[in-house]
User: What shape does this take?
Amino acid sequence: MMKKTAIVTGANSGFGKLITLRLAKQGYTVIAGVRQAKNAEKLAQEVKKASLSPHIHIESLDVTDSQSIQALKEKLDDYAPITLLVNNAGTAYGGFAEEIPIDTYRQQFEINVFSVMQMTQTVIPFMTSGAKILNMSSISGLMGMPALSPYVSSKFALEGYTESLRIELAPFGIQAALIEPGSFHTNIWNTSMNEQIIEPVENSKYSTFHQKMMAYLDAQKSNYGDPNQVAELVVTLAEKKHLKRLRYLIGKGVRLSSTAKRLLPWHLWEKIILRTLFAKK
Assistant: This one.
């Protein structure tokens, strides 16, 4: 049986941790990239508790640091060939476009886009025909929402990059695809979005809009999905011989929303968004 080796970035929490554990149970050797030592220790404890230590190799990896990626690259000969790369590491920044510092956009793209590009460039030489690259996008990579333009624009960029990458790699038998979750109970929504949405400045014209948007996001929490579903999808795709689709949507209501945006005239779609946010309670 062919050895199955996966690399998962951002493996210490959320989707990344669940994907790492689930792949190991499926028989993969998993290189779990973790940025902070304290988080690596916590993950090691969970891996040991699950009796998966022989299958999961926790490596120090800051995807925004070229030297850290290079240090991992120097170890990949020992693991090659790599059969699966899951570019999962990411974060979310928000606020209103007029008021968000440009450096915030740069930081968002550094984490969600440029790190994916560098990780992918690093790992491809260690892949052979049949390998797969799964990039963790979002329903936000298909539709914009107010107060989330840094996150949304980074995911739109990731979508275009992956579409081009998929076509480039097809002649070599390496497949690339996007996973597009809706809202799930993970740190990116429970922590990052709460701490990294830049509130409007004093007397801002966006204050009411901000309040409406935050109320909408808070109201949606009861509809958030079980992140284990995303981990299961990753395993399913990893085990498939052919990924016939570029995009794999998952989550409550995401297919309906995606279809509606694609089919409706823009002015109607925009009206729906505004009415949803500003509906009287």
Notes: The chain has one domain: 5-278. The mean pLDDT is 92. DSSP finds ten helices and seven strands in the chain. The radius of gyration is 19 Å.
